[in-house]
User: What shape does this take?
Amino acid sequence: MPVYEYGADRRVGSSTLSLGGSPVFVAEGLFADRIVADCERAGVPGEALVLAPSAARTFARRFARDVAESRKAVPLLLRRGCGYGAAAARWCAGASRPGWCAARWRSRLPGCAPGWGAPDKSGLVLTGGMENTYENLAEFTDVDQAADPAVFVDLLQRLDAMPQTVRLRELSYARLGTGRGVDVGSGRGTVVAQLTARGLTAFGVDLSAAMVAEAERLNPGHDFRVGDAYALPAGDGELDWYHSERVYIHLDDPDRAAAEAYRVLRPGGRVVLVDLDSDAMSVATDHPRAARAVLAASSDNLANGRSGVRAADTLRAAGFVDVEVQPYSPVHTDPEVVWPLYPGPGLAIAQQTGAITAAEAEALTAEARRRGADGTFLAVPALFVVSAGKPA
Ligand SMILES: C[S@@+](CC[C@H](N)C(=O)[O-])C[C@H]1O[C@@H](n2cnc3c(N)ncnc32)[C@H](O)[C@@H]1O
Assistant: This one.
């Protein structure tokens, strides 16, 4: 191992590391990437994580630490800081190669400080080497505050392209009726564009300015507005239909959103809510107890994780009638697609609550990766298309 001297700012020697029979070790820091290839060649099992925090924040933290510990002269630290942003981008790009996992974890987990980095508890397995480039799904509640809103745009792009999504939307569009209406939580704007192509008059509303900008870029000539499901930019009884897909799962007060839907619809108008019951995903696994715990943890981390199965009650409570529930359970064989729901963020949460051990988290991660590679991964989410009418 290299011996680095802070004062000299260079390598001043080397030493031999003996694992003393320990099966694993942790190498952390800027130079950790240098030893990954050697470890792989030596057959040392391991995971490689790239933590990619904001350059400014990292510079501020490093500066405070280095000054407090008198590691280097302040002028040198300031000079370094100026070049830090570009250098950090180079390090991350260099380290983000196959087999590494770009960990973009901004934690909102119970007991964790906000900000980048792993939860403040040793031994947690966060991402386990999967290509997990997606943030915690719970951050869909406020995409603009996420470290990188583009990550969520990218996730929606992948969902849009899936045949399962196309089928799901066929089911929901068939229940809308005609006329003018709104897609609430319109994301990239695909639903607005598709409904317009079917002859409906549609506009989209999304809480995120970044999403609205992306929707406008992708769908020129369509109407998208920044707005809130709880306070829609529409008058009382103005609309013929109301559509919202995968949004109520992120709402902490779905009843209030449904009341707003009721307000903007005309008598006889149609409402369609499309959502998951994230608690009810079926997963093929050799570790059913741990998998169940992780699924529950993922679901509980969302504002309204059981939204899909709750939607009928939500609509009835708002005054809607003739409620119909159409379940839809597509088959997913690509772990990358379902990773944000399983095992994804639930791995860390379930470890924090003590529901699973670090070893179980590692086993689930390895299983998802293995099943993805050998074609045996199987996850079946429970989706619901729930439609109703405002009394005429
Ligand atoms: C999972 S995405 C679904 C996007 C789109 N409906 C789709 O299915 O592709 C959730 C969307 O809801 C938006 N959102 C979250 N909370 C919202 C709120 N209170 N009002 C309006 N939009 C909201 C997010 O910004 C995000 O674009």
User: Anything to note?
Assistant: The chain has a mean pLDDT of 81. The pocket of S-adenosylmethionine is lined by residues 140-141, 143, 156, 159, 184-187, 205-208, 211, 228-229, 245-247, 250-251 (CB under 6 Å).
